[in-house]
Amino acid sequence: MSRTPDTWILTAHSPSLLGTVDVITRFLCEQGCYVTEHHSFDDRLACRFFIRVEFRAPAGLSEADFRAELAKRVAPFSMETELTPPGYRPKVVIMVSKADHCLHDLLYRQRIGQLPMDVVAVVSNHPDLEPLARWHGIPFHHFPLEPLDKPAQEARVLEVVESSSAELVILARYMQVLSAELCSRLEGRAINIHHSLLPGFKGAKPYHQAYLKGVKLVGATAHFINNDLDEGPIITQGVETVDHAHYPEDLIAKGRDIECLTLAKAVGYFLERRVFLNANRTVVL
Amino acid sequence: MSRTPDTWILTAHSPSLLGTVDVITRFLCEQGCYVTEHHSFDDRLACRFFIRVEFRAPAGLSEADFRAELAKRVAPFSMETELTPPGYRPKVVIMVSKADHCLHDLLYRQRIGQLPMDVVAVVSNHPDLEPLARWHGIPFHHFPLEPLDKPAQEARVLEVVESSSAELVILARYMQVLSAELCSRLEGRAINIHHSLLPGFKGAKPYHQAYLKGVKLVGATAHFINNDLDEGPIITQGVETVDHAHYPEDLIAKGRDIECLTLAKAVGYFLERRVFLNANRTVVL
Amino acid sequence: MSRTPDTWILTAHSPSLLGTVDVITRFLCEQGCYVTEHHSFDDRLACRFFIRVEFRAPAGLSEADFRAELAKRVAPFSMETELTPPGYRPKVVIMVSKADHCLHDLLYRQRIGQLPMDVVAVVSNHPDLEPLARWHGIPFHHFPLEPLDKPAQEARVLEVVESSSAELVILARYMQVLSAELCSRLEGRAINIHHSLLPGFKGAKPYHQAYLKGVKLVGATAHFINNDLDEGPIITQGVETVDHAHYPEDLIAKGRDIECLTLAKAVGYFLERRVFLNANRTVVL
Amino acid sequence: MSRTPDTWILTAHSPSLLGTVDVITRFLCEQGCYVTEHHSFDDRLACRFFIRVEFRAPAGLSEADFRAELAKRVAPFSMETELTPPGYRPKVVIMVSKADHCLHDLLYRQRIGQLPMDVVAVVSNHPDLEPLARWHGIPFHHFPLEPLDKPAQEARVLEVVESSSAELVILARYMQVLSAELCSRLEGRAINIHHSLLPGFKGAKPYHQAYLKGVKLVGATAHFINNDLDEGPIITQGVETVDHAHYPEDLIAKGRDIECLTLAKAVGYFLERRVFLNANRTVVL
């Protein structure tokens, strides 16, 4: 699971066709690359193929040549590939509102090296979490939401994302619905944490909904955002038991841990190139 | 948790009033009863009080006198009480259709003494599970459902329940919706197992719904039935992780274990007098 | 996870060498076999390579030719391979004593097709579980243990295993220590369920040990047997929370469910060819 | 579970005697106190009684009179009681070495009010975590351990504990064995987190031990310290599944979350007066 510092990751997906595994593994072998972990999955209902390989390359491997040759090989399979060199750290923007637990948790994990990412900015519609971001040395942008001016605010958010070349946006309890346009711009690269076991309790105040319903389990769902509120492809979910003695504020308190763990797990999967979109579902290898 | 063979159980609930705990514990003390486990909970939002006490009574205690005196004491509190003598085994009717896993599990637990109940009948709209019931020496009633004659079929079901003085009906994967009338007749004494984490995936084929949604957890919910389909008060819920490689049939297979364990747990709580109705929720002490 | 009825399984392990993945996948591709799931793992500390592939073969594939050619290809890698054709059901012997829960659970899972195995015999040092075996139509052998005659009894056990060509022996709460000789004869093909979280609470009465220690979790461990009592390679472990109110008999009751689930899971992994020995540990792909 | 700001907590334990519940509940009723949660447990093997009550007191209750009268009432039962007024926050000293995850987690929970305690000092044998303590505004004491001078160092630790009237010492990954004398001075009020599922993998480097053993679950144990290393009464335990792909550094990473959650849970139980010593075990009400 942990990788040596010289480990590359190659992922790919394509329609289901004979030879998809072989085209990858044969190429790696010919290049003198040593496969340390390999996982492929063929979805027989969707007829889609997914593969993720970790490998060590021989000294002197030319990344450019490797990419060029690989592209040639996989072309007949309509395969999309992604190559991640050793030590690569994706740039990430985190969006928050007032609740700090997920931000606190993500920045800690970044700091100790558990989440290999570079958080280039924290963006919020409230000023509250600036000290926390600053303590970690990360730029904080306060973009307040004026009642009639969501498009302008979202334009500023998008400007931060694009100017920093962030490849991932984490909505770490950002309590605003994104516009359809922003959702579309961030498709496949924005992960939200919703504080319920979706599809149960979509929308506002899910813990209060859960209390009223009298459920005996509460959970959290990390998912890619899309145009449908709380309906994007699910990456992972966490859960804990509760009982009659949990008032809404107890569910909220218990939920904080689940949200942190579930979001961090999903982000980790993304950074390790384990997550693939598969229509409105995900494959996690 | 396990009880000595001379242990009684006393439960009660009432509006929240000063003195509700004391009226019970003082009475028990005066009667020379030794409390071995005591749990009370006051719901400060619903303003309802719930209590469950296990105790050992002195030799020669008159149950009739105990009940009469207790009734007098608690009268000022509008308290409803239930007293369960040592060794009492509730009579139970189990309803099934074709899937046998929950029935198989419940009858095994009864046989080894883990569920202290007397299953007086198994009722089904299909003949398939008769051999299983017979092997355990339990009468099996096949009441087929004719398209236009649900009322007649349900009348036969109710006749079995009432003539046997069953105090609990277990819907162990009974795949028919009960009429409003039967639901109402069985209110508070019929437990259903639904194969999803309610309120997610109500209704038919929840595992197929779960597959299409791409959830990463599946579960089961044991609940009292009421007039709203899959909406009755929840007693307990179970859950397991799944991934992209679980096709619908894999969810069904995985779900069988969760359903068995969740239903058996809920039935155990009921038999041990741990479950209280609290409007559309439950308190489990 | 579920497989179509025409799915083959190929597993292999070898020292870590460049080309191990490629030799398998290239051969499969050349044979026209379509890989539906592929998982390989290279243990960088042990320098051992493990691979498991599920694939669909083209019509008319000759198994004999496939095996012969595969053997030639992998020879340079000191690779041991195992090929499992579609629909193959391993023969299994189950050993029990008096506790019936694991046997009851395994035979049920066999009957509904969840464990694709043929139980050819149940062997016991006590006569108690004969009716259960008979109900499932499985031969039952009562081989009592005479104080000074363990070798003779074990010879009879081994005779059943070998004459039936059983490739797996399941010790489903068989409460006798096997001799070093029998352990050695069954190495890598006998799975035991121990009712504790090994390495905690080895030996007799683990639930009583757990009670005295005051642990807040109890569990079960499914492992291959070897010459060291309760020290063989672990396949999987299950766990549940407990509290101060669990007396030893409550731990035993709670443990039954964990034991059944943990043993069934381990047996399922074995039948699906997911388990590899890796010195005194296992790899489960 | 959450309490209104005017809630008191009363706990008590005594030998098992008729009248122990009644003496508490009758007294509370006479004082006009309203019980909101009540839990008692009688250990029938140890013959010890444990009780925990949350209640709201009438306006104007004199704490001194309440305590005096209570003491008189319970005297015949050899009962030890502890009364915790609303809003009481125990003083706590946290001991650490170099690993910061537990400290980071505990201070965060204190700051957001989830752990109602006042951390009066952080003590360490290393200087590394001073910035973290300082950021939270908490005094940090660096007491290095000189090879032959453990008694002097421990005297300084004890001086901090006693001069601050700390009633709880948390060993949040303090990587030194305490002397028998210090253990004895802190008995019943020092909680340690050990990074294994005790009694498995006592002592140093438990994750490396777990890796070598090939376990499929790793966990953490929060326990009171006593003179036997890693043998004190267990308060709570946490666990997660792992597999063959987890190298020791992966177990360490995964373990951090379990350690944080398990320790925070145990500290929460302590602060809420839920934990009772019961010989070498605990009762958690």
Automatic annotation (TrEMBL), chains A, B, C, D:
Active site located where? 230
> Domain Formyl transferase N-terminal spans what residues?
91-265
Entry keyword Oxidoreductase:
no
Per its UniProt entry, which superkingdom is the organism in? Bacteria
| Enzyme Commission designation | 3.5.1.10
Which InterPro entries does the annotation name? ACT-like_dom_sf, Formyl-FH4-Hydrolase_C, Formyl_transf_N, Formyl_transf_N_sf, PurU, PurU_ACT
GO MF annotations, alphabetized? formyltetrahydrofolate deformylase activity
Q: Which Pfam families match?
A: Formyl_trans_N (PF00551)
**Stated name of the protein:** Formyltetrahydrofolate deformylase
Organism ancestry: Bacteria, Pseudomonadati, Pseudomonadota, Gammaproteobacteria, Pseudomonadales
Q: Which gene encodes it?
A: purU
